[in-house]
């Protein structure tokens, strides 16, 4: 029994020698350092990628100010007494005006589709 008591006394002296305030601080700092390595965040499972996405948005192609002005067509006042040549000239003049206006409208609409 005496041997056991002596062994315990020796252990107590050794522990008392090792547990000085400086050693306790060093042991605590080492424990914190070891535990801080465990607290690092793992990489996220989902990787965030920022991309530019083009979404079509309706915008009117033309303003009302950009539309061509509609010209007044030559009124056809064909009289029975008119010469056939005069009648054809009036119809030809109106057809030219219409085709010019339609050509301008087609150019404007083609510009919208591009």
Question: Describe it for me?
Answer:
The protein is mainly alpha-helical. The chain is rod-shaped, with a radius of gyration of 50 Å. The termini are far apart.
Mean pLDDT: 78
Number of strands: 0
Q: What is the SS-derived class?
A: mainly alpha
Q: Which runs of at least 5 residues are low in confidence (pLDDT < 50)?
A: none
* Biggest sheet features: none
Count the DSSP helices.
3
Strand fraction equals under 5%
What number of structural domains do the residues give?
2
SSE string, helices as H and strands as E:
HHH
Radius of gyration, in Å, reads 50 Å
Helix content: 55-70%
Shape verdict:
rod-shaped
The rounded distance between the terminal residues' Cα atoms is 104 Å
Give short descriptive properties of this protein.
2 domains, mainly alpha, 114 residues, 0% strand, 3 helices, single chain
In short:
The protein has 114 residues and is mostly helical. The protein has 3 helices and no strands. It has 2 domains: 2-38; 62-114, no CATH class.
Show the helix and strand layout.
Layout: H1 2-18, H2 21-38, H3 84-113
């Amino acid at each position: 029994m005496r041997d056991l008591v002596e062994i315990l006394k020796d252990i107590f002296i050794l522990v008392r020698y090792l547990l000085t305030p400086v050693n306790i601080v060093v042991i605590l700092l080492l424990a914190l350092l070891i535990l801080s390595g465990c607290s690092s965040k793992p990489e996220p499972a989902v990787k965030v990628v920022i991309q530019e996405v083009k979404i079509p948005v309706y915008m009117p192609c033309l303003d009302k100010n950009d539309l061509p002005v509609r010209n007044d067509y030559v009124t056809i006042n064909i009289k029975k007494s008119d010469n056939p040549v005069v009648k054809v000239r009036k119809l030809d003049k109106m057809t030219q005006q219409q085709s010019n206006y339609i050509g301008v409208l087609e150019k404007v609409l083609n510009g919208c589709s591009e």
